[in-house]
Amino acid sequence: MTKGYDAVPEEKRERLRRYLEAVVAARPAPVHTAVAFNALYFGYDLGGDGYGGSPLSLDDFPVITFGECAPVLPVGAMVCVATGSDPLYAEIVHREGAHPDVGALGDVPAWVSGAPVGAEGPGRPGNDPAPRRRELLVPDLHAFGPALSLSPTQLHRLRTRRRWINEDGHVVVDVCYPSPEVTRRDDLTAYADHLLTTAREQLLSPFVPISLAALVGSTHDDDLRAGLLGLLDTVGGVLDASAALRTWGHYAMTRASLADCWQDTGPLGGGDLRSFVAAVEHAATPAKRRHGRTAAVTAYTAVGPWLRGFTGATELLRGVGYAAAVCRANVALADVVHGDSDQGLFENGSRITLDDAFEGGGVWRSRYPGGAEALGDPLTPAGHGWASTLPAPSEPEPEAEVDPVDLPLADDASLGSSELLRKDADEIVWRAPLRLSHLIGGWIPLHPLVARELRGSHGPYPMPRLELDHAGQTLKEDEAVQQVTAELGDEPGRLTGVIWPRDFLPGLMLELRWPRGGTVIRLTTTQLEEPVQIGDRVVGHCYDPRVLTREDAPGSNRHGDSAAGLGPRQLVIRTVRRCGLLTLDGHALLDRSVLPNAVYGRRPLGAQAAALESAVAELLAERLLEPALGSRDVWGQPHYPARNGQPAIPLIGYRPARRRVIRPWGGGEPTHRRLDVVQFVPGHLRRLRPGFLPSEAQRVAFREHCRSLGKADGWELPYGYTFVTEHTRGR
Known about the structure:
- By secondary structure, this protein is of the alpha+beta class.
- The chain is 29% helix and 21% strand.
- It folds into five domains: 5-102 and 125-254, no CATH class; 264-387, no CATH class; 419-545, At1g16640 B3 domain (Beta Barrel), CATH 2.40.330; 563-654; 672-730, no CATH class.
- It contains 22 helices and 33 strands.
- The protein is globular, with a radius of gyration of 28 Å.
C-alpha cells in the first residue's frame, strides 16, 4: 500500500474498502482521506471508543491557544485546544477559509475568490514572507471516545463563552504559514508534512500495528514521505472507487446519507438544497427588461455562510454537522452543473463554475451572459475572481523572440534532507546528499546536533579539518585533507571553503562523522556494486535519485545554474526534470499542457512553438522521455497514476534509469504463488495473558525495534504486552 493504489491487489483493496466504508458510515462528518488514513493507521474503533484505545500520545498533540497565531493544522491533525479548565482533544475533520470580507449571506467580493494567502486587497497579493490567513477549523470533539470527551454541559458552557471555541463548537484562528510556498500545497501533501514534522512521534510510534518506518524499511525522510504519500493515495483511491460512497474533493460520505438528506423535508433537507442550487443558478441572471441590452453580471457565492441563512439551520450547523452540510450542498450543486448544463453553461445563458475550493466552504461563480467564455471543467477551481482584479497581461509583438528564462524549482520540502545514523558517546554520524548549491558555493551544512556542540566547545567560527574519502578513487592532496571554516552563528551551521573533487555530482550520498569534542570531520562516499547509466552520466557511487534528477539537469553545473544558451531538446529535458513531480526513484512527471509556458515563461510564438514540439517528438521517439497518463482533481491538482472519476490529462515523464526489480523474500520470481507460501511478519506488540510478564530479551528487542524506527533512546514495553520480533511464516 505504500506504493499507491494501483500497486495493491484487488483482494486487499476489497478488505480495505469494507473497513473504510464502515468508518465513513460510523463518523458523523464526511471522512477526509487524511482522516481515513488516521483510522486505518492508528486504529479507529467502530464500537464507539474512536481513538480512545489507540497508541496516540495526547501530550504530543499541537496546542491551539486562544489569542495566539496557530501553526498550519491540516485536516486530519489531532490537536489539543487549551481552555480555562479541561483541555479539548479533537481531530480536525474539516478546514476552510474564514475571510472577514465574506458576507453573512454568502456574498463574496470578487478579489477574495481564489486570492493567494496574505492578499491585501484587489490586485494586491502582499509580500509578507510569512503570510497569514484566517481559517475555520471543525474539530470532532468526540473522536477519542467518551473517556476524553467533555459532557454536553461543559461543551455548552465553552460555546456560550465563545472564547476558545465559537458558538458552533468551531475554532477560528489566524494561521501563520512559514513561507508562501507552503500555502500552495494540496491537502494531502500538507498532511504528510504535518505527520513528518509536528506529529512525527505519533507517526513513528512503535505501538501502532506496523510503523511506517517498518513498512518502507527506512527512517530517511524521503523514503518515509514517499511511503506516506503512497498510503494516502491508496486510501484515497479506495474511497473514490467505492460504489457505496460519494466523494467531494478529498471528502467521502455515504450515498445512503445523501439520499436521506434529499428526502428530508426539514431544515437543510432536500427543499433547502434545491433552493440553494436555484439561488446560485440565478444569482447573476438579471431581471427581464423590455428595451435595451443587459450588462454582464458576475456573482460569487460562498456555500457555508449561505446555508446559515436557512430557517432552523443553526443547530444543524453546529459541531461536525457544518462539515456534512457544506459537502452535501457542494455535491448537490455539482450534480446539477454536470446534469443540466454544458460544462457549466445553462440554457438561460448563465454559466456556473467552482471558483475557489477553500474559502467559505467553496465559492461558486455565476456569470451572465456566460456563452462568450471558453468552456472547461466547471468543477476545477479557476480563481476568476482574483484574476479579474489583476492588470491584463501585455501581449508580445507577433514576431518577437523570447529568450529562455531560468526555471524555478518545484516545492520539494524534504528534498536532500539529512538523516541521523548514529549518536553515541564517541561520535555523531549522519548522511545527506550533495546539493547543487553546495557544489557552486563550496560549502556543506552540518547536522544541527554537531553545529550546536561545536559552537558550545569551540565558538561560532572554528577551523575544523575536513577529511574526504572517495571510495575507489584517489583524491588530490588538497582535496583529501582540507582546512575549512565552520560558520555556526545561525542555525543550521555549515562548513565553508570546501574544495569538491571534480567528479562529485549533485545527489551524491555523503556520510559524515564527527568524533565528539574534536575538530575533525570525516566525509566518505559508498561505491555501487555496478555503475549505472543515468542520462549522459555514469554514476558509480550511491546517490539520491531525486536530487540527481532535479539538480543535475542541463544547464546546471558547479559553475552555475542557468537555462541560457540551451537548445530546445535540452530546454525540454531541463523543464521536466526541474518542474515535474518527483517519484521516489527519480522519475519526473509534468503536465504536458503547461510545458510550453514552463520552458519560455510565456506562450511560445511561431518558430519557437514548432521547435519545441519537434524536440518533444524526438525525445519521445528516442525514449529519453516517455508519455504517461494522469488525472486532475476538482481542486486543480494533478495526480499520477490517474484516479477513477477524474478527467485524464497527458503527462510527459523523464526516465532516469531502468527500475531495479526487487525480488520478495530473498530470491525466486515475484509471483503471487510464492507470496502466498511465505509471508514476512514485521515486529509487533502482543497482549499477554493476566499474570504473565515479558522476558528481558523481549524488552531489549523492543528497545532495538524503537531505535530502528528513529527513536534513539528506545521506548519501554507498555504494561501487559510483549514484543514479537520480525519473522517469516509459511504453510
